[in-house]
């Protein structure tokens, strides 16, 4: 398997604060990879290091098989970046922005593909960029990013600030563009429904540490929420393998457990609840419940199985 993005112990300190900690990230070629984490988790810093905009404290990163610090010009031409906020020169017309972008990528520029995107979204060439809607601007930015026909596209929260219809249009465009075999997308977003719609794999950073790196469906299926009902106040939960968190809500005890199975079921039944139920989670629910758990006991997800060391209960207010 080849990897479009590969990092080895990539680490970044700002002063004494470790923002990204020994990151070993592997993004297979041809994958749409959802890069997730709460605010301050280290996502943007990681992207900056991948693009050479920030120097790592130590470790290394490779894009398309080449060290980021020594990317040849012909490899840089195969990489595109769409920044948060979709920065464009507002005083330009769409046609002027196209001519400006083409001047940097004459050898690889795919004008036909760009025209197809602009025509699809009915964006006139004479329109000033500052007068376009947010949705139109992000689609112009996407068109300019993919016109050089990149093999690797890095998107940093590209749908931020868009309404539901504009976000859906953008995602459908992205899915269509991924149809070309071999193109890889690293897609960072705070909108988990978008990631769930398009991502084959996800990585989740928690306090600068990559805690999850696996297929999207594997993560969703591995995180379970259990709700236990009691006649009075719930007993103290004794803990079990894979426990992320436990908290009381009135006469209920709510648990989040990774890889729920027979051993965990036995612990639950030993508490003699009146009833208990397993609640299905979408990606956003699983992400929220997983990342707000106690940091020291979070199970780590890989391709096939999760490392689930024993954990103690984290009782707290809901």
What is the name of the CATH superfamily of the largest domain? P-loop containing nucleotide triphosphate hydrolases
Question: Helical amount among residues, as a percent range?
Answer: 25-40%
Quickly give the structural class.
Answer: alpha+beta
Second rung of CATH, namely the architecture of the largest domain: 3-Layer(aba) Sandwich
Question: Mean pLDDT, nearest integer?
Answer: 85
Outline type = elongated
Largest sheet: 6 strands, mixed
Secondary structure layout:
Blueprint: E1 3-14, E2 17-23, E3 26-28, E4 32-37, H1 43-50, E5 58-63, E6 66-67, H2 73-76, E7 79-82, H3 94-102, H4 111-120, H5 134-146, E8 152-156, H6 164-177, E9 184-188, H7 192-198, E10 201-206, E11 209-215, H8 216-222, E12 223-229, E13 240-241, E14 243-249, E15 252-258, H9 262-270, E16 275-279, H10 283-291, E17 300-301, E18 306-307, E19 310-311
Parallel strand pairs: 4-9, 4-10, 7-8, 8-9
Antiparallel strand pairs: 1-2, 1-3, 1-5, 5-6, 10-11, 12-15, 12-16, 13-19, 14-15, 17-18
Helix pairs in contact: 4-5, 5-6
Overview of this protein structure:
With 318 residues, the protein is of the alpha+beta class. The protein has 2 domains: 3-207, Rossmann fold (3-Layer(aba) Sandwich), CATH 3.40.50; 218-311, no CATH class. The chain contains 10 helices and 19 strands. The protein has a 6-stranded mixed β-sheet with strand order 7-8-9-4-10-11, with helices on both faces. Strands 1, 2, 3, 5 and 6 form a 5-stranded antiparallel β-sheet that branches. α5 (134-146) runs parallel beside α6. The radius of gyration is 22 Å and the shape is elongated. It starts with a strand and ends in a 7-residue tail after the last strand. The model is unreliable at 305-318 (pLDDT under 50).
